[in-house]
Amino acid sequence: MNEKVEIIQINISGEDKPGLTSTLTGILAGYEAFILDIGQANIHQTLSMGILFRTTADKAGDIMKDLLFKAYELGVNIRFTPIAEDHYEEWVGLQGKNRYIITVLGRKLTARQIAEVTKVVAQQGMNIDSILRLTGRIPLQEDARAPKSCIELSVRGTPLDRAEMQSRFMQLSTELGVDISLQQDDMFRRCRRLICFDMDSTLIETEVIDELAERAGVGEQVKAITESAMRGEIDFNESFRRRIAMLKGLDVSVMEEIARNLPITEGLDRLIHVLKRVGFKTAILSGGFTYFGNYLKQRYGFDYMYANELEIADGKLTGRHIGDIVDGKRKAELLRLLAQVENVDISQCIAVGDGANDLPMLSIAGLGIAFHAKPKVKANAQQSLSTIGLDGILYFLGLKDSYFDDRRF
């Protein structure tokens, strides 16, 4: 004769104490109860725990009695909720639904920002399974490091309109000064292996060609062409040839001086440090120049570097280039090539850039991130990062500050 089965959910709250989880699950073990699900969170030393377990009807009363007495001894609150078998089976069936990760990131996160993001989730008919803080706990007196705050929402279900959901998140990003990433929680998100960066205005906070043009006395003319190209208003190759032609006669010693003083983008040191520790291959795919790309490659240990080579004669720039131009199309080709060389799927690749010529590689990468990008680029990218430095990419990968507790960064 089959024994009647009881499914019971217990919720425990109160001051967290060492051994509490072990003690409560030990009681369940003593009655040979089967744990169906368990979750625990700790906020400011206050515990919130849920356990869903299955037992037989003849043991259920004794289990609840023992748990109640033990909870009283430990000074925590406990609540019991019986779960009907059909409701449990329905809940289990939901596990097969799509899962998404929503990353909310900024200098600081406010209640309004979180409320607006979660409102979109509800409107799309999805459920939040968990919320995890990825950044360290926030001190009342902030230290010298640039502040950053990030939470990750694990969401279950299929959005009613994913494109509309993504569009609304991008709109909120602009309105509320926060970055919001929406990614499907699949195997590729958890095993990214190759990351490719644009250089100018991404790894460094300048356009090197503008720096060269200033030294050559044609700064305003070149800067205007650069900005137009980055906005996608003119063809990159055409703009490239026009700009470098204006550099004719510039002494190469200027390049060394600029390289020594490149303004490095916030968060780059920490980002590369962490990516190397977790086994990423790194590459620079730049429409800029090899001289400066090689400088960054040596300084940070990038594995690959592709850029444009300026022709030099008698110690001066000739106003011409050597070889094919690394434009948007070429960047995408190089990304595919490097994926093959490293034997990884394109879905395991990340591309990061700010300009219109980065869009081709951003669109084919498993994760394409528009970094402090121009409006056209941000509007056409999968994800954007605009509120903090490059190390914000780590949170898009689900990496927590506590994994890399290094005060140098």
Task: Please sum up the structure shown.
The chain is α/β, with parallel strands linked by helices and 409 residues long. It is built from 15 helices and 15 strands.
Describe this structure in words.
The protein is built from 15 helices and 15 strands. With 409 residues, it is of the alpha/beta class. The chain has three domains: 5-93, Alpha-Beta Plaits, CATH 3.30.70.260; 97-185, 2-Layer Sandwich (Alpha-Beta Plaits); 194-404, 3-Layer(aba) Sandwich (Rossmann fold). The strands form three sheets. Strands 12-11-10-9-13-14-15 form a seven-stranded mixed β-sheet, with helices on both faces. Helix 1 (20-30) packs antiparallel against helix 2 and helix 7 runs antiparallel to helix 8 (236-245). The protein is elongated, with a radius of gyration of 27 Å.
> What is the H/E order?
EHEEHEHEHEEHEEHHHHHEHEEHEHEHEH
Enumerate how many helices there are, as a single number: 15
Percentage of residues in DSSP E strands: 25-35%
Shape: elongated
CATH fold title of the largest domain? Rossmann fold
Outline the low-pLDDT stretches.
Answer: none
Strand order of the largest sheet: 12-11-10-9-13-14-15
How would you state the average pLDDT, rounded?
A: 90
Number of strands: 15
CATH architecture of the largest domain: 3-Layer(aba) Sandwich
Ends: how far apart? 64 Å
Q: Please give the largest β-sheet.
A: 7 strands, mixed
The percent of residues in helical segments reads: 25-40%
Task: Briefly note the structural class of the backbone.
Answer: alpha/beta
CATH superfamily of the largest domain: HAD superfamily/HAD-like
